[in-house]
Amino acid sequence: MGEQPKMNQRSITVVLADDHRMVREALVPFVRRIGERVIVLEAGSLDEVIELISRPEQDIDLVILDLYMPGMNGPGGLRRVREVRPQTPVAVLSGSVHSQDIEGALDAGAAGYLPKTMVGAAFVNALSLVLNGERFVPSEFYLGLRDRGPHMAAGEGEAGGDRAPVGLTSRQWAVLRELVAGRSNKEIAKILGIEEITVKVHLQAVFKRLQVSNRTQAATYAMQRGWFNNRTAQRGDIAPS
Predict the structure, then answer these.
(1) Exposed/middle/buried for 208, CB within 10 Å: 0-12, 13-18, 19+?
(2) Which CATH architecture group holds 12-142?
(3) Which among 2, 56, 79, 179 counts the fewest CB atoms within 10 Å?
């Protein structure tokens, strides 16, 4: 499926928690695609998760948590996990894309919200984002925000009058800004301190949100709407990748 995120040479340990065994069996192969050496620890309830992550000798790099499995009590279970492992990113897995569920999970400290309807490649990319310190939220959430009114996404705007349209996160906005400035994916990754695969994932989300097909169309779309000041827009041509 293309380039994988660069992780440490040691193995990556992931706790995959869902009360349906068939769901876990279906997801394990995709979880193992986030690195060269991935150890998947399975759990079927919140109590099992707490038992696994409470072992002081056990390194845990990521927890994937079914929002409605036994013992969760919605975001309350997520908060319990965060209390035990405050430095470990937790991605919520759910069949729901209702805004109240997504907002509740994010407020409780989730680093990502993964609908069970996601296709394999998107699921792997979302986990890669979370492991690289990013936050993943499904596009349905931003569509819901757009329907509420002309709000701006959190963290948008900067000196010079730049403003992001609803539906772009602050990081996607930053990637788009550098794209307009003519940066390649490699240059954008270096400037923003993220992996190149992360830049590619953000760009795909930007293209989808703006309803464009490539970098040139995205840059043209942004400049025609005056989203960036002239100094930013005139840094260079649009790089191919």
Answers:
(1) exposed
(2) 3-Layer(aba) Sandwich (3.40)
(3) 56
